[in-house]
Design a protein that fits this description.
By secondary structure, the protein is mainly alpha-helical. It contains four helices and five strands; from the N terminus they run αααββαβββ. α1 (16-66) packs antiparallel against α2. The termini are far apart.
Length: 274
């Protein structure tokens, strides 16, 4: 008996463009991971730092209101407020940059993967005879699996985001003695700072365009028409010494607005009643 040799097909050599495409895939993956970590850092870790500063600011504000002659607490309040504002705007800026760079790196990664797939040498393989009906069934099954996987991934992502958001909204527990002067006697019991509820936010005007920036007022006993010269629908008027473009903040019976005068930034607080 004689044996028949089996012919094998040698895969074509992969050219330099294939190596370049693979390098682009590696770079896209590396930069996507880096920008994703940076985005998590600025959105989660720095948010916790800002919340801890806000808790200390509330304690310092109460301490200054109780003793207006405490210059050390006043200076600490001003310094911490400036730091907190810097961190807030810095986090907003870096979050936007990281999100944009993550989007660009993921775009490069997807394009590199498609380029690699297009340059990949074709491997010889037998073509089985598949029934057309069975092929349609297989494609439908694969489509259902793909949709299920994507939906499950989105659900897991939303759950993680919701859990992280709840953790960020947990009120901080800070001891009053931790923000006092070094020689002052610390208070034995810590003060627990509560976070305003959704109902309190809806009853007040705490930001530009109100709750969630929607410009919707959740109260009904408000004037719908007014006239400045005739004082129609206007309870009182008061001149503001400084100038500035800002959105007034209304919380409880207090109205806050900001401005500047002779090169100095100022914040004004008015009694809503009179």
């Amino acid at each position: 008996m004689t044996s028949t040799p089996v012919k094998t097909t040698i895969s074509p050599a992969r050219g330099p463009w294939y190596g370049c495409a693979m390098a682009c895939v590696c770079l896209g993956t590396m930069f996507s991971a880096i920008f994703l970590v940076c985005l998590i850092h600025f959105t989660v870790i720095q948010s916790r730092v800002i919340l801890s500063h806000e808790a200390e600011l509330l304690l310092l504000d109460q301490q200054v209101q109780a003793n207006s002659a405490d210059q050390a607490a006043m200076e600490r309040l001003r310094t911490l407020d400036a730091q907190n504002r810097f961190l807030t705007f810095h986090r907003m800026e870096k979050t936007g940059v990281c999100a944009l760079m993550l989007l660009m790196s993921m775009g490069v990664l997807i394009a590199a993967v498609k380029w690699t797939h297009a340059l990949r040498p074709a491997q010889p393989r037998p073509v089985p005879r598949i029934n057309a009906t069975q092929q349609l069934v297989d494609r439908a099954h694969f489509g259902r699996l793909a949709v299920t996987g994507v939906t499950g991934g989105l659900v897991v992502l939303f759950v993680i985001m919701a859990v992280q958001g709840q953790r960020l909204l947990i009120p901080a527990t800070v001891a009053v003695g931790s923000v006092a002067e070094p020689n002052a006697q610390a208070v034995s019991e810590p003060a627990v700072l509560s976070v305003a509820t959704e109902a309190e936010f809806s009853r007040n005007w705490h930001r530009f365009r109100g709750l969630a920036g929607a410009g919707v007022v959740h109260v009904t006993d408000i004037p719908t028409t007014w006239n400045g010269p005739d004082n129609q629908g206007i309870a009182w008027k008061v001149p503001i010494p400084g100038e500035g473009n800002n959105s007034p903040i209304v919380w409880g019976n207090r109205i806050f607005c900001s401005g500047f005068e002779e090169g100095q930034q100022e914040v004004y607080c008015f009694d809503a009643a009179d």
